[in-house]
Specification:
The chain has 416 residues and is an alpha+beta fold. It has twelve helices and 17 strands. The strands form four sheets. Strands 1, 2, 3, 5, 6, 7, 14, 15 and 16 form a nine-stranded mixed sheet that branches. Strands 10-12-8-13 form a four-stranded antiparallel sheet, covered by helices on one side. A two-stranded antiparallel sheet has the order 4-17. Helix 3 crosses helix 12, helix 8 packs antiparallel against helix 9 and helix 10 packs across helix 12. The longest helix is centred in the last third of the chain and has 22 residues. The mean pLDDT is 96.
Length: 416
């Protein structure tokens, strides 16, 4: 960055006010947000974001997945843009900062450049990716996945919500089905600022997480089929208890994850038993296993051990099983030069920082397949996220946005 930009900071009060103005759209019931993708609240949030960007002199484009791109022009025609952003959609009981911080900090980068009359050689594009959360339309990171060629556009349009509504039809209904081909854009780099969604940075008193890797994951949906029978009259040795089989597999998942510490994780979240009656031994159990690791070798080993373990459990209990892979992506290694740029920005600004692995999926994980990419993280209180009680401080937001500003501007190159 040019010398006159070395100590620049974003306007923390403006960023904080912008975040909380956005939070008024799609309010939750406990101080957070319910602004699920392609709802009327999502459309309202998009319109406000577009207005703010246009007031900052940026031009808005929308692709066929509804992702929004707000461009601040550079001085060199044809120079590849530097992209920054995240998402505005939330979980049904989501917080005010997950995703939103990254989008509105990108807007704050543009506003700060405008305030200071600074031009950059490369354009800067602030991005709002559609349906990062995947809470209404699975899978998560849907639009960035189509952009990166992971998913097919028509397949994405055919995703259904719980009411049977189609993604493509809802996108059109709210007026954000753009004409721009998805994935046609070329990027010099992409930077995403996000809350950590974990406890490490706060616990260690660190200002900035420099994200070097993103965990890969497997989601396995398991269906166990035994035999429904009376809990009071069926002898213990004659039971084919699908619920007990599920319990043993839950323990298996935990044991496997513990064997690959420090970074591997695993759990069973969604669980259903049938017929779910107090005096009937479950004849069927359906549940989803979530395992993650930043190492592909470890992740694949965990997957193999769990599948083998399921077979062993079911054979011993005389119950049948089906295992369907309903989600997967390999671990991500973020671009070394982008990561170095983030480290240099944090060091120069005097913020404490450490390398960190993202335990959650983010749009940056897919975009890393098509452009140099890296992420910045700031702490969140008690590591809590996907919860209306999600909280960060203004100082944490400022630190993250300051580092984002310097990383983006260093990459976009100030013109003296």
């Amino acid at each position: 960055m040019a010398a006159h930009g070395e100590n620049l900071r974003i306007n923390a009060d403006r960023l904080w006010d912008t975040i909380h103005e956005m939070a008024k759209i799609g309010p939750g019931v406990a101080g957070g947000n319910n602004r699920q993708t392609l709802t009327d609240a999502d459309a309202e949030a998009r319109a406000l974001f577009a207005r703010w960007c246009e007031e900052a002199g940026a031009t808005i484009s929308i692709d066929a997945m509804g992702s929004m791109f707000a461009r601040r022009e550079g001085t060199e025609p044809g120079a590849l843009p530097v992209y920054v952003g995240s998402h505005l959609d939330t979980q049904p009981t989501g917080g005010r900062y997950d995703g939103v911080l990254g989008v509105l900090s990108g807007l704050e980068v543009v506003r700060t450049l405008n305030d200071l009359g600074i031009r950059t050689k490369h354009p800067i594009v602030v991005t709002n990716w559609t349906n990062e959360e995947g809470s209404r339309f699975a899978p998560a990171m849907l639009a960035s996945g189509v952009f990166a060629g992971v998913h097919d556009l028509e397949w994405a349009y055919a995703r259904q919500d719980a009411d049977g509504k189609l993604f493509g039809e809802e996108l059109e209904r709210i007026g954000y089905k753009g004409n721009e081909p998805v994935g046609a854009r070329k990027m010099k780099a992409f930077f995403e600022l996000h809350i950590e969604q974990g406890p490490i940075l706060e616990r260690e008193g660190i200002d900035i997480g420099v994200v070097t890797h993103g965990q890969g994951l497997y989601w396995l949906q398991v269906t166990l089929t035994g035999k429904e029978s009376h809990t009071g009259t069926t002898p213990m040795h004659r039971r084919r208890n699908a619920g007990l089989g599920m319990a043993r597999i839950v323990e298996l998942v935990h044991e496997v994850a513990m064997d690959y510490q420090p970074d591997a994780v695993g759990a069973v979240g969604h669980m259903e038993v049938y017929p779910n009656s107090r005096n009937i031994i479950p004849g069927c159990a359906v549940f989803t296993i979530d395992i993650r690791s930043p190492s592909k070798k470890v992740l694949d080993a965990m997957n193999s051990r769990i599948r083998q373990g399921i077979e062993t459990v079911c054979e011993a209990m005389d119950i049948s099983h089906e295992v369907e892979q309903v989600g997967h992506f390999d671990p991500v290694t973020f671009d070394e030069d982008c990561v170095k740029t983030i480290r240099a920005a944090a060091e120069h600004l005097g913020y404490s920082f450490r390398d960190i692995v993202s335990g959650a999926g983010h749009d940056a994980c897919w975009i890393s397949r098509v452009a140099p990419t890296a992420m910045i993280m700031c702490p969140c209180v008690n590591g809590l996220s996907h919860n209306e009680a999600e909280e960060i401080t203004k100082e944490w937001a400022q630190a993250g946005a300051d580092v984002l500003f310097h990383a983006v501007v260093a990459t976009a190159q100030i013109v003296d």
